[in-house]
Amino acid sequence: MKILVFGAGGQVGREVSRAARPASFELLALDKAASDISNLSAVSKVIERHKPDLVINLAAHTAVDRAESEAETAWAVNCAGAANITEVCGETTTPLIHLSTDYVFDGCKPAPYLEDDAVNPLNVYGRSKEAGERAVRAVMHHVILRTAWVYGAYGTNFVKTMLRLAADRQVLRVVADQYGCPTAAADIAAALITIARQIGQGSADWGTFHFAGAGSTSWHGMAEEIVRLAERFGAWPGASRRRVEPITTEQYKAPARRPMNSRLDCGKITASFGISPSPWQSSLAAVVRELVEKTGR
């Protein structure tokens, strides 16, 4: 089985490349420099040249706050780019897996979100990703995988930001009234590989699925766990313990509005693919350990 991955240079894409090494298929990993998905001609040429059995689209403009001032770029990648890939996959009858986000929801629901709950994104990032989902649904054989609060050993993410700030500060102030499911990029990669295998075997279900770390917390709760784990793994030796103080969304004053509840219900993906998310705390521990050992802090 030959799999073509757009967005392979991102944090999930890097983990897909790591996870695929012992797998029984050929992986064609393309980053932005290799193929700009906002260019339909470039997408068409690369898919027609490689003739993959499956396309995975991980390419996205994921800087949520920056998207507010870079709306044109966000829409070009998250919506038009997804539409371009979908158009070519439809013409070549190539199955497509597309990675999406919890930010398609407005956060007003008190319980975890199901796949068929109404969408109502609050910011440019969420609106462009929701439009990309609608474009992907135009091709018959597709899997849209929504995930949340992604972090990992590569790229820019909340875990790496907290570790960087904690290296220089005794006190971190972190939003405590937004709730979600932290999800390791490596866990997303493993889920994608499982789905890809089942597509290759002709036993996959199609449609929209949620995949996120099991359990939920606030950004503040996640930051507290990051600091606790980092100190346990030997970060900042000799320094006094870091404190994480809670603040409100209003106090943080980010450019982009965010949903107060980003929790995702993952029952459907377990029933369809046998994929059971790991507890967010255990996956976080593995990533923090890797980062601390790599950087020494």
Care to describe what's here?
- The structure is a single chain.
- The chain is of the alpha/beta class and 297 residues long.
- It has a domain of 194 residues: NAD(P)-binding Rossmann-like Domain (Rossmann fold).
- Helix content is 42%, strand content 16%.
- It contains eleven helices and twelve strands.
- The strands form four sheets. A six-stranded parallel beta sheet has the order 2-1-3-4-5-10, sandwiched between helices.
- Strand 4, helix 5 and strand 5 form a beta-alpha-beta unit.
- Helix 1 crosses helix 7 and helix 8 crosses helix 11.
- The protein is globular.
- The termini are far apart.
How would you describe the shape? globular
Q: Which percent range fits the helix content?
A: 40-55%
CATH superfamily of the domain at 2-150 and 184-214 and 264-277: NAD(P)-binding Rossmann-like Domain
| Low-pLDDT segments | none
C-alpha termini separation? 41 Å
Largest sheet, spatial ordering of strands? 2-1-3-4-5-10
Strand content: 15-25%
Structural key phrases:
297 residues, alpha/beta, Rossmann fold, two-stranded parallel ribbon, 11 helices, 16% strand, globular
